[in-house]
Amino acid sequence: MNKLQEIAWKEKFPQFAGEVEIHARLELPRRIDLHQIPWIRPLLQSRWPQFLIRSLTLAGFVFTIFAGLFGSRVGSHNFAIIFVWIAWWTALKLAFIPLGGRSWCSVCPIPLPGEWLQQGGILEKSRRRFGLNLRWPKRLRGSWLQSGGFLLIGLFSAVTLTDARLTAWVLIGLFGLAVILSLVFERRAFCSYICPIGGFTGIYAKTAPVELRVIDTAICAAHSEKTCYQSCPWGLYPVALRDSAQCGLCMECLRSCPSDNIAVNLRPFGTDLAADIKSMRQSSRLDEAFLALVMLGSALAFAAVFTGPWGNLKSAAFAIGSPVWLLYGLGLLVLNLVILPGAFVLTVWMGQRWSGVKVQLRRAIADQAQVLLPQGLFAWIAFTVSFAFPKMNYVLSVISDPLGWGWNLLGTANSTWSPDVSAFSHALQVALLLVGLFWSARVAQRLVRKSNQPVFRQALPILLFCLVFSLAMLWLLVG
Amino acid sequence: MSDLLKSLSPVWRWGILALLTLLILFLPIPGNAAEPAEKTFQIKASQFAYSPAILAVNPGDQVTIELLAADVVHGLSIDGYKLETTSDPGQTARLTFVADQQGSFRFRCTVTCGNLHPFMIGKLQVGQNALLWRGALLAGLALIAGIWGVRK
Amino acid sequence: MRKEWIARSVILVLVAAAITIPVVVWQARSRGIVIHARMAETGGWTPENLTVEVGQPLRLHLTSDDVMHSFAIGQSDEPPVNVIPGEITEVTLVFDEPGKYTFYCTRWCSVNHWRMRGTIEVTGPEAAAEAVEPPLYVTLGLDIDAEHHAEILPEQIPSARRGAQLGVEIPNKYISQEFYRSHSPADLWHALRGEARLSSLTNQDLWDLVALAWQSNTTPQELIVGKQLYATNCAACHGESGGGDGVFADGLDQPKTGEHTDMQAGEMTARPSDFTDAEHMLAASPARLQGKVLRGGMGTGMPYWGPIFTEEQIWALIAYLYNFQFELEDQP
């Protein structure tokens, strides 16, 4: 195993490779480099495995759009609804993100046509490339747009999640947007700045046990061409990767590094949170803090609307364009833009005042927001369990009759088999929320330890915030 | 006291936490010792809500649910109780059972009644929601467990 | 370069498969006519009009696009089949006689559910023109829209059992089916009041005799049929206990309450009749009720059931309607 060294992140994105300064070097144990494992290495080095998976997801994506447009309008019998909002969403929340970080991004089909146009070929780059390759505007960087996108989803969720045609059009819209953005801007602009899924996948990737890091920075310092940066479709500079939020695990840098100096590490959970470095420069940002709060607020809202017994709320969320819907939208926005951020800022400020720690409030908010990540992740996992488990039987039947046209391709069309998971499901949701809360408290503890005044009072307000959120989520899901 | 807490070795710490966890999990929740009675509820089902949507009964009650669909055909099935019925508008359906399981159970519509059908949900509360109480107490414990060890 | 072309072919093949496979499967499985069912407000049956020849099987694939519906042929013995959202139900029909048949939805799917009807034109050699008898109210020259109310009402619900216990014989002319169908309970009561033989009986006693007369014109089996028809077709508006308070009643009650978004533009509706209202019900003859059921309401939103029920079914239903006014069971 090679020694691992990290470089502290600078506060802004490097505009070009020369800007990155090399600060302290540290050794980081507890990593297993997958790239060095003999049977995994060829799978990562060759473009074919990933390409084949992506071509399958692309075909699935096209079929999903087809099913959504032409299939039965009854959601429970349409492949588009069941596979996007139940099967894929569950896989995303229960497997891709907690276990693989941004692993979905590495097999996502949406940016494919744009990528092909940008590099002038599907598997191999050619000299004939399309696209203006403009830089993404500085003002629009960060995950602000992605937070907005997720709130937009929340506003229209009651209809989008239940209408097959609308789901298909949303997918078409995302697809088209990705292509257009690829022709105008450089790299995976859509994925980095617009895709709402990319937004929360990124922040929760900080908790995940997978990372891509450089091994020996001395080698990188001596390498003038920086092929890794040239080949990264996300516009990242692997040497400077501080956390896993931006890296889409596409492995292109791995393939282009002439010194085999990049590692794909399995690591302990949550390593990016309150990370262990001597320098106090955290990699957390204000926009990520806001997104983390939006995810918490959305978890509450979705739990209330979709798994709660309040029919008026559901009808309000469904009646798009009506006055009640405007009221619902207002409530959603107030919760996510005013109440939660306001309460959070207050708790951070109180913690600072109480303990006498002297840190700029913006920095404190960005740092403390890391506490919200494990809890948010597990709240969403618990919500997904509550939302999707009772409908799992539809997955089997929709595989045999994807369009609701009376087919029975695999003989499972009439499968109403659904394990009665109700008792187990509730206990599981509680357990998930508890794990999330415990983990968040752990992160808070680590942050306190790292601060220059390790005073417990600093963390108390934010811990109360977390507790209140957990109790609210608990009541919504199993109350 | 805080000195004592600080000086406890991790083994003791986890031991106390484990003990408290077991206590919270298995301590009986005091419920009201109400006599089992017969209760009848008339539930109107319309797109996409039940009215009333939240029913509260005591453990052991004999519960009758009269389901009346108000616009299209609706159904009702109770999670955990494995009971189901369907009602056409104008034809009340009756479901009678003994509420022998305690807790909070969601009931859902079983006949596709429109877009929001999968989310047409109501709640049956039988006695105390032990899971909620235990979960809330365990949340507090999880918080304490998470931060125990921070130096004052 | 070769790798690039292989990659491009892979993409092309997979994406093409994603689109062509469903189309191919659909072509291969397509036999018969697909009928989509939607609530009447959003389209009803599509297609609405079918044609078939006598003796030829008509294969239908029925599916619903929104809520639970069902499919049945009017005035036929074919049992209704459920038309389930997202699923296909196959039905094969064979018609022996040419003519125009109505198919309709039998499970309430909106307030306009009764408008969900279509026609099947069965072509064939012209059958001998049957002399179609006009319904009774036409023969009698009855104005079924006219006001009708009973002046003298019973104090308690008239009971056929009590009437039987009186041990009085009702003159045959009053209990014949012809009389029953063309006279209202109030008419019979007045006729009985005029009978010298019965002058010793109280008003209530006479009402009990009327109930007895009504009971003798029906059978328990007919009442069961009527009850089932009522529950399936009428209770949604008229109420399960006949009080004009069914689930759709408020919406029909213009202009006091209810939304009119469900109604077709320009449609007038009125609150469904209250069959427990003795004043009106006791003055309604079976012929009048049959007329209303057959023809529907003018400006009231009452459906017309002519093409749907057979005559037997309508008389059974009417017999049951009087159950809201009389106790017709033998057992208390």
Labels describing this entry:
heterotrimer, A: 479 residues, mainly alpha, three-stranded antiparallel β-sheet, 3 strands, C: 332 residues, Immunoglobulin-like, Cytochrome Bc1 Complex, Chain D, domain 2, five-stranded mixed β-sheet, four-stranded mixed β-sheet, 9 strands, 14% strand, elongated
Folded structure, characterized:
The complex is a heterotrimer of chains A (479), B (152) and C (332). Chain A is an all-alpha fold and 479 residues long. Chain A contains 20 helices and 3 strands. Chain A is globular and about 65 Å long. Chain B has 152 residues and is of the alpha+beta class. Chain B folds into 2 domains: 43 residues; 90 residues, Cupredoxins -  blue copper proteins (Immunoglobulin-like), CATH 2.60.40. Chain B has 3 helices and 9 strands; from the N terminus they run ααβββββββββα. The two termini of chain B are 13 Å apart. Chain C folds into 2 domains: 91 residues, Cupredoxins -  blue copper proteins (Immunoglobulin-like, Sandwich); 201 residues, Cytochrome c-like domain (Cytochrome Bc1 Complex, Chain D, domain 2, Orthogonal Bundle), CATH 1.10.760. The radius of gyration of chain C is 26 Å and the shape is elongated. About 3% of the residues of chain C have low confidence. In chain C, the strands form 2 sheets. Chain C has a 5-stranded mixed beta sheet with strand order 3-9-8-5-6, with no helix packed on it. A 4-stranded mixed beta sheet of chain C has the order 2-1-4-7, with no helix packed on it. In chain C, 36% of the residues lie in helices and 14% in strands. Chain C has 332 residues and is an alpha+beta fold. In chain C, strand 5 and strand 6 form a beta hairpin. Classes of the chains: A mainly alpha (479), B alpha+beta (152), C alpha+beta (332). At the A-B interface, helix 13, helix 14, helix 19 and helix 20 of A face strand 2, strand 8, strand 9 and helix 3 of B.
